[in-house]
Write a sequence for this structure.
């Protein structure tokens, strides 16, 4: 008797639950503008260059945040659920946080493999692709290559082309708009790159040490030579033994500049700099790392200015 | 029941929606480089196939008869080849008798030439596989619930993959000292209409926070006393069933989500389905808000209801129900710039249990028991975290008896893929055999190691 009554009550509660589920219909997508979400700010900046005022762009990660360790906060779901397009860095950079966000977003458009899922690494030149056996004895290696590829203006241009094609495919009516913005961007970045190259020319072939392996594409493009890392292995915090070895190597090779990303502790780099008479310079790997870095161009402006300064002070 | 019917009504809708999704347009390549790279890839693939074919032709011509060995790559025997597809390794378990006489022995040449292409490309379709080893050691005094001195507590194999454009699947098999347990194995449909997320399979129920977390992802070595006393022990509510989740409308700045789940009704020591219709249900409402960029608040209320086994000898065994109510609150702080060095987490969960049972005098009664835990932890730097937990919980079948405990926890991470943890645990516990309280003082230590695919960090 009691069970029956409870059963009825439970059924009522449960039905109410289900009715609640179905009654609340998601608000209609904002008409017109393409809703674009990106994993990182750099991709957002590139998407904004191409999309102009025909798109709304937002990044999940912030520019001063370690893109390996973003938290999968539910608040991101609110944005992802209405996205038409999700642009990711790929190469397992976001493997620790993006997959659950994509699943829980309940947005069919941005699921892996759907037309609204865009992996920017497919368009870029990728460095440090491991050959042979890959083990975690080498730390948190990325088996498909180094994911920090956006720090090369040529890759920026390649990704922008991919984004422009994707936008045109999704909004054929605006295809000529995107094509025009792309060609403007192409012109602008080629011009800017000439200036950057000219600024970096005096320092060609300089040896530097970086904290994490975030800079291979940057170094290759601007002719720098990364000879060592503060991390003994990617993702492994500095160890005393490795630091001593690194100091010895820097002294032998006369390396004076230590490049650090904004999300790493400066204690070890500073003590290395003291030992070697070098300079620590915090470069921004991403747009938005500092307030003044508002777009993809200013990212290189900022980093190159800082780097020049560091090279000049550490003669 | 009605919920179930609705669920099934949903399935065809899902496939309809799925068919509407346009096929991915052919990728347009932005530059010569990548096009050349792809062409090179294709040429290499083709040349591998040609050399395979040539070798097979030759061995066919030479032997004509089977050489009784197991073929690893057979192109000619394949009934249909997709353009550009690669030979897939035949199963190694093929015995000599079952090998058809037409299948040739693979020549050495082919094997040395296909080690890269064929095998690694076939591997690409394997699920992401990982294994997490969880070793626990215990020392000290505990007469009530003594743990083993040294124990390979579990080895959890995880397999995760995208099934098709509309679903993904996750399976976690836990190999313990006493056998294998399917901890979770479910498919998640991600492309349903109306923003619904459907999970089908065996899963940890969405009841509070700690019930959803796997052992290796806990912030402590053991589970809180309240879990053990009221919510089904270590495995918690972990059952075969169907789960439906949906975002709920919420005020600006808030995130709200509702989950409704139906299970068979068998969860260790908590729910027991004597009849097929003795299903259990779980409901969960969650509200989340970012207080600032680095601080957030996560609130939840949960409800679970199912039949218990206390009426096994009664005339109507299904008349005995257990209802559970839960409330949870989590405050997290993690400054974005210093995310890998410093963070703070504070979490409290309350549980209320109402359990029907027979009293000592064989009269029908309902026991109302309460349990809770509070946990806080602070990450000191990249490698060290300290934490503490306070526990208090009544017993589900005798609410007058209450266990109390507290723990101090210290965790060290050599890297992202291993973890060493120590925990001091004090307990003022009821010994069910003697019905007397006993003090437990224990030291636990744990080694965790992760192999294989990089899993997502729990939030």
């Amino acid at each position: 008797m009691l069970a029956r009554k409870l059963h009825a009550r439970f059924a009522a509660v449960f039905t109410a639950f289900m009715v609640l589920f179905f009654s609340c219909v998601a608000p209609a997508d904002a008409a017109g503008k393409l809703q674009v979400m990106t994993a990182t700010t750099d991709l957002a900046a590139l998407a904004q260059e191409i999309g102009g005022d025909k798109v709304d762009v937002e990044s999940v990660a912030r520019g001063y945040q370690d893109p390996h360790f973003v938290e999968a906060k539910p608040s991101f779901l609110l944005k992802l659920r209405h996205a038409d397009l999700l642009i990711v860095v790929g190469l397992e950079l976001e493997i620790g946080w993006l997959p659950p966000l994509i699943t829980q977003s309940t947005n069919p458009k941005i699921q892996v493999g759907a037309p609204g899922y865009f992996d920017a690494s497919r368009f870029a030149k990728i460095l440090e692709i491991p050959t042979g056996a890959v083990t975690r004895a080498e730390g948190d290696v990325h088996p498909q290559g180094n994911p920090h590829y956006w720090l090369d203006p040529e890759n920026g241009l390649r990704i922008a082309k991919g984004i422009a094609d994707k936008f045109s495919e999704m909004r054929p009516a605006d295809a000529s708009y995107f094509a025009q913005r792309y060609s403007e961007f192409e012109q602008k970045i080629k011009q800017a790159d000439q200036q950057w190259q000219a600024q970096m020319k005096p320092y060609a072939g300089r040896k530097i040490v970086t904290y994490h392996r975030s800079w291979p594409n940057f170094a290759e493009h601007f002719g720098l030579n990364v000879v060592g890392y503060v991390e003994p292995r990617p993702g492994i915090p500095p160890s005393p033994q490795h630091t001593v070895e690194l100091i010895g190597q820097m002294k032998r090779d006369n390396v004076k500049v230590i490049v650090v990303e904004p999300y790493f502790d400066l204690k070890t780099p500073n003590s290395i700099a003291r030992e070697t008479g070098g300079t620590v310079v915090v470069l921004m790997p991403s747009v938005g790392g500092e307030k003044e870095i508002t777009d993809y161009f200013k990212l290189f402006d900022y980093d190159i200015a800082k780097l020049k300064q560091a090279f000049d002070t550490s003669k | 029941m009605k919920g179930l019917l609705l669920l099934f009504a949903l399935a065809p809708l899902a496939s309809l929606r799925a068919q509407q999704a346009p096929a991915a347009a052919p990728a347009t390549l932005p530059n010569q480089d990548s096009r050349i790279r792809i062409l090179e890839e294709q040429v290499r693939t083709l040349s591998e196939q040609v050399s395979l074919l040539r070798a097979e032709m030759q061995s066919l011509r030479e032997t004509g008869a089977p050489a009784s060995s197991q073929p690893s790559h057979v192109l000619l025997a394949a009934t249909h080849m997709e353009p550009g597809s690669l030979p897939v390794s035949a199963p190694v378990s093929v015995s000599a008798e079952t090998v058809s006489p037409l299948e040739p022995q693979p020549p050495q040449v082919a094997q040395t030439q296909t080690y890269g292409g064929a095998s690694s490309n076939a591997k690409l379709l394997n699920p992401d596989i990982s294994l997490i080893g969880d070793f626990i050691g215990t020392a000290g005094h505990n007469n009530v619930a003594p743990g083993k001195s040294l124990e390979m507590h579990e080895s959890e194999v995880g397999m995760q993959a995208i099934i098709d454009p509309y679903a993904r699947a996750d399976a976690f098999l836990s190999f313990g000292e006493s056998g294998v347990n399917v901890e979770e194995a479910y498919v998640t449909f991600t492309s349903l209409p109306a923003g619904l997320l459907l999970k089908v399979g065996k899963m940890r129920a969405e009841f509070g926070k700690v019930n959803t977390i796997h052992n290796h992802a806990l912030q402590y070595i053991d589970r809180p006393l309240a879990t053990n006393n009221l919510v089904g022990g270590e495995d918690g509510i972990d059952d075969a069933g169907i789960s439906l989740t949906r975002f709920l409308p919420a005020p600006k700045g808030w995130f709200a989500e509702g989950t409704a789940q139906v299970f068979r009704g068998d969860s260790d020591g908590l729910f027991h389905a004597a009849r097929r219709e003795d299903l259990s249900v779980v409901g969960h409402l969650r509200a989340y808000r970012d207080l600032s960029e680095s601080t957030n608040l996560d609130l939840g209320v949960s409800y679970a209801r199912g039949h218990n086994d206390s009426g096994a000898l009664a005339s109507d065994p299904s008349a005995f129900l257990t209802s559970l109510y839960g409330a949870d609150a989590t405050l997290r702080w993690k400054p974005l710039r210093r995310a890998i060095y410093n963070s703070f987490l504070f979490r409290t969960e309350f549980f209320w249990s109402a359990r029907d049972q027979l009293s000592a005098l064989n009269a029908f009664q309902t026991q109302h028991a309460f349990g809770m835990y509070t946990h806080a932890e602070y990450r000191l730097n990249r490698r060290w975290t300290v934490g503490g937990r306070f526990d208090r919980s009544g017993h589900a079948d005798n609410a007058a008896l209450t266990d109390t405990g507290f723990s101090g926890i210290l965790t060290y991470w050599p890297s992202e893929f291993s973890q060493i943890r120590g925990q001091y645990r004090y307990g003022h516990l009821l010994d069910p055999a003697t019905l007397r309280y006993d003090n437990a003082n224990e030291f636990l230590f744990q080694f965790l190691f992760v192999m294989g695919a990089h899993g997502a960090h729990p939030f």
